[in-house]
Design brief:
By secondary structure, the chain is an all-beta fold. Helix content is 0%, strand content 59%.
């Protein structure tokens, strides 16, 4: 399991739950056949900041697959600053046992 590091207070924003820097490999499913690779840069109970290899054409509704933790999240894109996007989780699915 990867260690998590809290985001420093000077760059933290107003969130309902704490955010942790993780740098985990991920895949993003979007649209009828869209697939992007990248890294989860930070994560909280309510969402994540992602850095995508190819951020173009990402739909507003996505499925984020955390390859390290074996978890999939249904999510909504809430902001975009290529190559990064922010997502809010709407549902969580364990992919392992």
């Amino acid at each position: 399991m990867n260690a998590t590091v809290p985001v420093p207070a000077d760059i933290r924003d107003n969130r309902d739950s704490p955010r942790f820097t993780v740098m985990r490999r991920m895949r993003l499913l979007h649209g009828p056949s869209g697939l992007s690779s990248g890294v989860i840069q930070d994560i909280s109970a309510s969402g994540a900041k992602l850095k995508l290899d190819k951020p173009e054409g990402v739909a507003d509704a996505v499925i984020l697959i955390d390859l390290t933790e074996g978890v999939a999240y249904e999510a909504a894109v809430v902001w975009r600053r290529a190559p990064e996007i922010g997502v809010r989780f709407t549902r969580r699915h364990a992919l392992r046992g």
